[in-house]
Structure formats: structure tokens, C-alpha cells
Amino acid sequence: MKIKNWDHPVFQVVGEGALSSTVIGEGRFIPLLIIDPLGHQEIKELISVHRNLPPGDAIFRWSSSIWNRKKIYLTIEFMKPMKTSFAIVFDTQNENALIEGIIQSRGFILQVGKTGDKPSSTQKEDKVLLEVPDLGFDFKWNTILTDVIKSKYKKMGLSKKEINIATKEHIKSMREVWAIRR
User: pTM for this one?
Assistant: First the structure.
């Protein structure tokens, strides 16, 4: 089996938040991700172009390494209005709520910026709403998320029974937040 190498840039999330509006996402919270394109001006141009054009075409793909489930990648290949591709890497330990938000809301808002930027201080920057369809990743994600949360509670010294209860409650609470509507 041949393992495909990345042939596009991979960016980390440098800022995050969530937006809620009655005009997008049926009033649900939508994750807002800020990435630093580090010399890849085409990403900033792509977001800027979307401001004045109808929605474009994009292909999304969730992936993870079979050796390291601590990282999840969301690869995005834009076909229109510009042809470009890149991936966003998520740390499952620290950014699991973002991944969950993208899956629950079936989308996210993308913005470029620099480390430390917050949505509240960059409101005037160009953004693009990206709809991420159901890609069949939900089942795998549920397994990864459950393992990550259980590991967190295990490190806190909870018993196996307490870990199972706390994990279910944690995930339930997270999903309730992403399901809030205006």
C-alpha cells in the first residue's frame, strides 16, 4: 500500500472562536478558525475573492495517521473561484471542541491572521463560510473523541465507571453547546 505524501501546505489554527447569526447555519454556533498562511498569499486571495463572488466548489477530506491519532487533518481542495488546496491540522487533545463544532455544524468560517488573533479583534477581516458535508468521518471521530476524553479523565485519577460517566456527560455537554440556536 502506497502512502500519499502531502502535496499542499498544512496550517495550524492560530486563533479560534464561534459565531452565531440567524442568517447562517440556522442560528447555530459556527466555529471560526484563524490560520496564518505563512507566505501562501493565495489563501488570503481566495478568502478575499469569495467576498464578491457566489459560493465556489471545494472538496473536503478528513484524515489521520494510523500511527498518530493525536492529529486530525481537514484537507480542502478549492476548484472555484481559484484552484488551490491546503490542510488544517488539529490537535485532538486541545482542539477536539473545534473538530466537534465543524462536524456538528457541518461547516466553519475561515479567516487568515497571526498567532494570538481573536475573532473579536479581527471582525473587519475577510472571512469565508465553508460548508463541510457529511464525509463518513463521524463514526471514526466519535471513537477518537471518546478515547481522548477518557484519557483526560483517567489522568485525573477517576475510576473506570466514573471515567465512562464523565466522558458521556462531557461529550453530551459539548454537543449541546454546538446545538444552541439564536
Answer: 0.90
